[in-house]
Description:
Number of helices of chain A: 7
Largest interface: A-B, 128 and 125 residues
Distance between the termini of chain B: 21 Å
Order of helices and strands of chain A: HHHHHHH
Oligomer: heterodimer
Number of strands of chain B: 0
Largest sheet of chain A: none
Radius of gyration of chain A: 18 Å
Helix content of chain B: 55-70%
Order of helices and strands of chain B: HHHHHH
Largest sheet of chain B: none
Amino acid sequence: xxxxxxxxAELFPNGxxxxxxxxxxxxxxxxVIYLGTAIIPGNSTFLExxxxxxxxxxxxxxxxxxxxxxxxxxxxxxxxxxxxVWGLVLDPGAFVTExxxxxxxxxxxxxxxxxxxxxxxxxxxxxxxxxxxxxxxxVNVALxxxxxIATAALLTALGVTP
Amino acid sequence: MSESRHPLFYPLVVLGGxxxxxxxxxSGMARPEVVLDFLQFEDLGxxxxxxxxxxxxGVLFFAVPRLFDRAPLTGDTYGKRVKSxxxxxxxxxxxxxxxxxxxxxCPGAAYxxxxxxxxxxxxxxxxxxxxxxxxxxxxxRVRSGAAGSVPNDD
Lengths: 162, 154
């Protein structure tokens, strides 16, 4: 009786409202595009379709990439703008991460490889795939979340911070 | 640009991106620190971002095809997002997991992070493009040697 609220406060020190509202908005962004176009937009295919503007590699020149690269680029730019609107509306000031550049860059390389080989990212598999009750996405999400937890624990144990 | 898009197609993509970007910033997921706190069980709130978004998406993917026949801007029928299962899904998930655990950032959150003024995140985005290019270069080589075409698996 008295343990449960303490546990909740321990696990969710910042509450859950901002997270849940943010999650609903993430889905709403996907939802309006889905409703109007039947397209389910992920976020990592953009990396490859955008490379098709500058690379002749056959991988990037496949027909569905060339057909979707314009709206995927526009979608990503709009995500940047939407986040900037949040900054303007709620006026929190610019946020600058203290996570070291080598972690951002090195981790980013692996994110780029992994999401494209694995057919999706947090949005494609984690939101849209799970929302579609896809077994493939469930396997992928369980793996990337589990491996990420282990990786973060390992780095912390090695004294890497932030 | 594509030949025959409905005039409202691109405006709708912009609207969807604005809403999602706002949501990613509002949720805190655009900050690598928030993701790394989640991965170390210091704040599990992020479950409600991905989980909440997945539940709402699930309701939409269930309800919309039952309420409407075709999407007004494309004429396409509504479906779900189901990819084929193979070894790549496993390998990719593991590699992505290491990258997410090292950096605390995923693609969509990285774009939003630029919008909140987090310029160091450009390191991560540069890395993502490099990684995407490396796997595409490698797969283009492998395919051209073997089958001669690139299968559409995304």
